[in-house]
Structure formats: structure tokens, C-alpha cells
Amino acid sequence: MQFDQRVAVVTGAASGIGEATARLLASRGAAVVIGDVAEGAHDVARGLRDEGHRALFVPTDVTDEDSVAALMDRAAAEFGSLDVLVANAGIAEPKAPLHELDVAAWRRVIEIDLTGVALCGKHALRHMVAAGRGAVVNVSSILGTVGQPNSTSYSAAKAAVANLTRSTAATYAPRGIRVNAVAPGYADTPLVAGLPEAVRASMAERQPIGRLARPEEIAEAIAFLASDAASFVVGAVLAVDGGYTAV
Ligand SMILES: NC(=O)c1ccc[n+]([C@@H]2O[C@H](COP(=O)([O-])OP(=O)(O)OC[C@H]3O[C@@H](n4cnc5c(N)ncnc54)[C@H](O)[C@@H]3O)[C@@H](O)[C@H]2O)c1
Question: Which of 5, 43, 104, 120 has the most C-beta neighbours closer than 10 Å?
Fold first, then answer.
């Protein structure tokens, strides 16, 4: 699971699962390019460089196609190739029943959590197709696999990411490019940090393992799918959820 000579783009790596993934891939030898809207990604990239890794932050909004194209082109230009894409950037939704749907919020979640993944894939794959190799790991969710009361846009987006992953995998496997996804359970990241303690406790309880994931535990699964150790894994949506979807 070494990534020496590989260049990895990780979106949404200013915090949480993306940050843990950027750190892990860098520690295993990858040059890491972070695309994020949050300025905090500057510190993550700087920290990695201070530790002797190759790392760069390119301010990126995954809903803006020009911005995404520039991210992928910059990664390839700066480090010589684009071997791994981790399409991780995402936001949570305001939970509400469908008959009370805030349509603007729906559109925002779909734009970031689904269209953003597609745009990142589109522009990373330009480089991977030209090279005849590459690995894409999309970040779905348990809520892309099972339903949950009052989840609308997030469940719809994450389920779409899972099936986009399968179809894209079938398209690009013959060209030497593997596309897979992880479907994380509840993880202890800024996405859930702001929730009331009772909600966090019930999230932990619903996972048979009895706790939230550490972001590093999700990152390990992402790194596996991105690595040559997963050379025969194509179109998988890997549950990394403490057993949430097993019961
Ligand atoms: N934390 C969980 O319990 C959990 C569970 C399942 C899936 N996920 C998924 O994991 C991924 C990472 O989430 P996290 O929990 O680490 O959350 P997080 O909030 O820590 O990280 C999300 C990152 O995405 C970035 N981002 C948001 N909008 C963006 C945009 N338009 N362009 C570029 N970057 C943008 C944010 O700035 C942030 O750095 C998300 O796709 C999320 O849906 C999280």
C-alpha cells in the first residue's frame, strides 16, 4: 500500500475524513494535492510539507467546473501525473420530511455531494485516460445504502454516488482505471461534531461496534481501494460502518 511516485488529489481535505486521507497517503509516499473551499486546507498542506511530504493546496469549489478542471491540471503539472482521485468533499443536509423540503438546500446538497463528485471524476479521468492508469475512490455513505427518516437530498446524493461509481467503474476498467467507493458509517468529524451529544450518542449506538469511527479508520479503507493491493477491486462500494448496514 505504498504510493511512492503517485500523485493523489483529495477533495475536502481541510478536515475530517479528507484530512486523514491526505495525511495517510502522504505518509505512504504520495504527493498530495488538496482541493477545498476552506482556507484551513492551507494549514493541512503546510503541515505535510513541514513533515517533508510533497503537498499542495489548490483552492477549489467542487461545484464549479472550471475550478475543478484547474485543480486536476495543476496537480498533474506540479507533480507530473494524476494517479489517484479521492472525491470526498461533501456537506450534510438540514433534516426534514419531504413535504417540508427546502428546495434551495436540496439543490445545494445535490450540487456538492453528487455533481461535485461527477465533476471531479470527469476532470481527473481526462488525465488518467491519457496515462492509461489510475484509481478513483468516491465517498458515499451508509445513507447511500439504507434509508433514514427525514433524510432527503443527502440520501439521494449518496445513493447516486454509489451507482455512479459502479457505472463509471464498468466504463473505465478496460482502460486500466479502477473506480470504487467507500460508504462510511458515522465518523467523528466536524460534520457531526456540532450535533447535540444525545444525537451523537444515538449515532454511536446504532453502529453495532458501539462508537463513532475515527476519520483515520475511513482513510485506511480509502487508501486500500486507491492502492495496488486492491488491483482486482472494481466498482465496489465498501461499507466502513462499524456494522451499521450489516443488521
Ligand atoms: N462524518 C460522517 O459521519 C460521514 C459519514 C458518511 C459519509 N461521510 C462523507 O464523508 C465526506 C467527508 O466528510 P467529513 O465527515 O470528513 O466532513 P468535514 O466537514 O470534516 O469535511 C468536508 C470537507 O468538504 C469541504 N467542502 C464542502 N463543500 C465544498 C465544496 N463546494 N468544494 C470543495 N470542498 C468542499 C469542506 O470545506 C470540508 O473540508 C463527505 O462526503 C461526507 O458526506 C461522512
Answer: 120
Q: At what angle do helices 153-172 and 103-110 cross, to 10 degrees?
A: 20
Pocket test for ligand 1, best of 9, 10, 11, 15 (most atoms within 8 A of CB): 15
Q: Which domain holds residue 232?
A: 7-246
**Which residue from 100, 97, 106, 92 is spatially nearest to 203, judged by alpha carbons?**
92
C-alpha 64: how far from its chain's center?
17
Give catalytic residues, as residue numbers: 154
Cα(174) to ligand 1 centroid in Å equals: 30
Cα distance between residue 206 and residue 191, in whole Å: 17
Non-local CB neighbours of 150 within 8 Å, separated by 6+ positions:
95, 96, 97
Q: What's the pTM value of the predicted model, to 2 decimals? A: 0.98
Question: Mind listing the pLDDT tens digit for each residue in 29-43?
Answer: 999 999 999 999 999
Q: Say which CATH number the domain at 122 has.
A: 3.40.50.720
Distance 191 CA to ligand 1 centre (A): 7
